[in-house]
């Protein structure tokens, strides 16, 4: 069961985007598992992908196609990651693009493939190829909700975010979906996400906006510290709502677009954490007083990845020594532990490197029993600050991943 409010909002239509889906029976019966996005001509598209050396075949193909042209179609299957599949897996990814290109009348390079699911198994190509025509026949601008469900794997809930905003008297839309519940650790973030706007944005800025937004959203989440083979995040700007293109950061509209994109992507990223496999609690880890952002993130991830910290939170046990331990083994040069302060929400548990004089176990336990909480650390070294989002580690996480292929 996901933590907190994970409800789907009203998914506003993005002009120039249509989505279709179908039941292709890639792995499971009676569920949509093949999704196609169609973008209008002249749509500008940018992507960010996994840093895993064993990146999946569709990641390799998508990266290559993005270097050639702006795509017209995205093809996403769930149930099978097509990763660790060698030359045949790469051939299958290319074949799926070619087959969709023939149906839609575009070049193969105009197709970006994405896969998610079990690693090391070949795609069931006959079923995937048979699902392409029905998915295309299902294309409709209102099908965001169905797409959010169609890209799920171990997710318990679909994930979506959508906003409308005004620039120069014109109303624009930013809408996106994501999936992910386990094997989540950014580098890029471990998940799939697809976000689109109908605002007019020049191609170089589309990539720039995406990179900035990802670093403040998907690259600030972790569930289990595992970086997937298939992570991909796509941002598309169709320009179909009209207006002159945004071509420079100096344009007053640029900052507004960036703010909206960050909000949408941060919501999608946090939904992934809230739906973490077996999660019962949503945790913000804020580290301040660092020399720089990298230092803050190093400490935040050290805490957020610690199985001992995460299991203590699951048990509502304010065993704050585990937090100090995680801070101490983070790779921070010359850390003066006597300057370190730690809080659970507003309850200070550590002052100047030792137990706060007025701290009580009862106060710590009250915070730990909440379904949402913040661990705040001040390193006492500088002015930098950053936040990472994570969840607890429960019995169900082990059960889900032990039974994943069964």
| Strands in their spatial order, largest beta sheet | 13-12-11-14-10-15
Radius of gyration: 22 Å
Give the helix level as a range of percent: 25-40%
Question: How much of the residues is beta strand, in percent?
Answer: 15-25%
Instruction: Please write the string of helix (H) and strand (E) elements.
Output: EEEHEHEHHEEEHEHEHHHEEEHEEH
CATH superfamily of the largest domain: L-amino peptidase D-ALA esterase/amidase
Structural class of the secondary elements? Answer: alpha+beta
What name is given to the CATH topology of the largest domain? L-amino peptidase D-ALA esterase/amidase
* Count of extended strands: 15
The CATH class of the largest domain is Alpha Beta
CATH architecture verdict of the largest domain: 4-Layer Sandwich
Largest sheet: 6 strands, mixed
Ranges where pLDDT stays below 50 over 5 or more residues in a row are 183-190
Q: Return the domain count.
A: 2
Give the termini separation. 21 Å
Describe the model.
- β6 and β7 form a beta hairpin.
- About 2% of the residues have low confidence.
- The chain is α+β, with helices and mostly antiparallel strands and 406 residues long.
- A six-stranded mixed β-sheet has the order 13-12-11-14-10-15. The chain has a five-stranded mixed β-sheet with strand order 3-9-8-7-6, with helices on both faces. A four-stranded mixed β-sheet has the order 1-2-4-5, sandwiched between helices.
């Amino acid at each position: 069961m996901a933590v907190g409010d994970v409800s789907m909002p009203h998914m506003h239509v993005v002009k120039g985007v249509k989505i279709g889906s179908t039941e292709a029976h890639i792995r499971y019966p009676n569920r949509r598992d093949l999704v196609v996005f169609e973008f209008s001509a002249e749509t500008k598209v940018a992507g960010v992908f996994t840093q895993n050396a064993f990146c999946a075949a569709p990641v390799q193909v998508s990266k290559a196609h993005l270097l050639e042209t702006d795509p017209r179609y995205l093809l996403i299957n769930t149930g099978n990651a097509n990763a660790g599949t060698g030359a045949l897996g790469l051939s299958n990814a290319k074949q799926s693009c070619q087959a969709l290109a023939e149906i839609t009348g575009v070049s193969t390079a105009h197709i970006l493939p994405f896969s998610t699911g079990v690693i090391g198994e070949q795609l069931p190509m006959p079923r995937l190829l048979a699902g392409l025509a029905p998915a295309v026949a299902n294309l409709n601008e209102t099908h965001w909700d169905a797409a959010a469900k169609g890209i799920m794997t171990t997710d318990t809930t679909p994930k979506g975010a959508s906003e409308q905003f005004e620039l120069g008297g014109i109303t624009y839309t930013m809408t996106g979906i994501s999936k992910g519940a386990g094997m989540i650790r950014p580098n890029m973030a471990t998940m799939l996400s697809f976000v689109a706007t109908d605002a007019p944005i020049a191609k170089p800025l589309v990539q720039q906006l995406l990179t900035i937004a990802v670093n403040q959203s998907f690259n600030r989440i972790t569930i289990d510290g595992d970086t997937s083979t298939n992570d991909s995040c796509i941002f598309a700007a169709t320009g179909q709502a009209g207006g002159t293109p945004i071509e420079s950061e100096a344009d007053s509209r640029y900052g507004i677009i960036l703010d909206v994109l960050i909000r949408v992507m941060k919501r999608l990223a946090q939904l992934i954490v809230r739906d973490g496999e077996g999660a019962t609690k949503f945790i913000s880890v804020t580290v301040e007083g660092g020399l720089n952002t990298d230092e803050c993130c190093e400490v935040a991830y050290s805490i957020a990845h610690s199985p001992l910290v995460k299991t203590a939170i699951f048990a509502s046990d304010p065993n704050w020594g585990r937090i100090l331990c995680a801070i101490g083994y983070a790779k921070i040069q010359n850390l003066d532990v006597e300057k370190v302060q730690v809080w659970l929400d507003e309850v200070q548990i550590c002052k100047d490197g030792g137990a706060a004089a007025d701290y009580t176990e009862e106060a710590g336990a009250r915070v730990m029993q909440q379904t949402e909480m913040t661990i705040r650390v001040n390193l006492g070294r500088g002015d930098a600050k950053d936040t990472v989002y994570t969840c607890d580690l429960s019995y169900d996480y082990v059960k889900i991943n032990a039974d994943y292929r069964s």
